[in-house]
Design a protein that fits this description.
The complex is a heterodimer. By secondary structure, chain A is an alpha/beta fold. In chain A, about 30% of the residues lie in helices and about 30% in strands. Chain A contains three helices and eight strands; from the N terminus they run H-H-E-E-E-E-E-E-E-E-H. In chain A, strand 3 and strand 4 form a beta hairpin. Chain B is mainly α. Chain B contains nine helices and no strands. In chain B, helix 3 packs antiparallel against helix 4, helix 4 packs parallel to helix 8 and helix 8 runs antiparallel to helix 9. The radius of gyration of chain B is 22 Å and the shape is globular. Classes of the chains: A alpha/beta, B mainly alpha. At the A-B interface, helix 1 and helix 2 of A face helix 3, helix 6, helix 7 and helix 8 of B.
Amino acid sequence: MGSKALDLWAGVFVLAGIVALFMLAFKVGNLSSFSLSSNNYLLYANFENIGGLKVRAPIKSAGVVVGRVADIRFDNKDYVAKVTLSIDKSYQFPKDTFASILTSGLLGEQYIGLDAGGDSEYLQPGDNIKKTQSAIVLEKLIGQFLFSKAEGGKK
Amino acid sequence: MNAAAKGIPDGLRVLGGWAINSVRRLGLASRFLWATLIQSGTSFRRFKLVTREMYFVGVYSLIIIIVSGLFVGFVLGLQGYNTLQKYASEQALGLLVALSLVRELGPVVTALLFAGRAGTALTAEIGLMKATEQLSAMEMMAVDPIARVVAPRFWAGVISMPILAAIFSIVGVFGGYFVGVVLIGVDEGAFWAQMQAGVDIFDDVLNGEIKSLVFGVTVTLIALFEGYDCYPTAEGVSSATTRTVVISSLAVLALDFVMTAFMVGGW
């Protein structure tokens, strides 16, 4: 085989590798959702308990993904979790929007659900979402249930 | 002195000889790597030397990589479905297939196949060149065999390995897709969506590629060194080829554990 054909096949080989890498990045990985981040704006929300929420968890409103969790910190002054929400610029939410941590399915991952309120003013970039609801921690729920059962039994 | 008392120093001598020989070979291999890196200028000035070797090392390995990737994907799809359906979470099949391939199986299985397919060929080729005194002939003509023969093969192996691993992973994902979605009937949207939500481009894809790059250096270096260092006889070449497969497979698996431990962040 001539040297030209060798080069051609080596070129095809490298090209196949590059195509495979791109497919791994876009089709298998999540690079496509990264491209959003340039035209996003940030909102903040404090939660008493975030349960198992992770950075880059989806933020959904009416079930549609509108952004991702950018950062989670512990606020040592108020002893709450300070969550930074990165929301797509094309979506605006009223000032009295309600943020709650929900679970998809029984064992699924946790996400932040946004329920739009009725306020005429919109949340500006950097604003704090005031109304939040913590994650439901199953152990606490069971504890409460058992406690109320025990109370009921006494009467 | 009876035979039992004599046996202990003999055993010690064997152990000591083995240890000294191992350390000596490790040192020789390091010097060999250093010499290869220093003499790499020719490979990059005459890049045709490298593309030619990439044809033999990379393109020839494509068939075995693609077929193995496909079947590994099939098996992952079947086995994963079997386990996941017990927890009624068969939608996570795509995530399971993609993560296992991209993080572990892609780099590791490709490196093992690469050692068997390309590594042995490199060892035998260079060993035979040495046995037939082609390498000495080159030195006689003031051509450095490391620059002309070893370095292009080294770089071809290092470049080919991550490419092969990426191809293996993507073919495996489609194998899993075929079994999971087309044959078994897992929801197609959930298959891709869970995969894209769970596979991180840096933590998973990039780390997998870093792994395969390290494996590429390891396997190619071992193959070339064994060939270069073998006894220049037919027997010497055959035992060097065997050593290539054994040592590079063990090195790949051991390195994989170390790198996974660092990447997962257990330490």
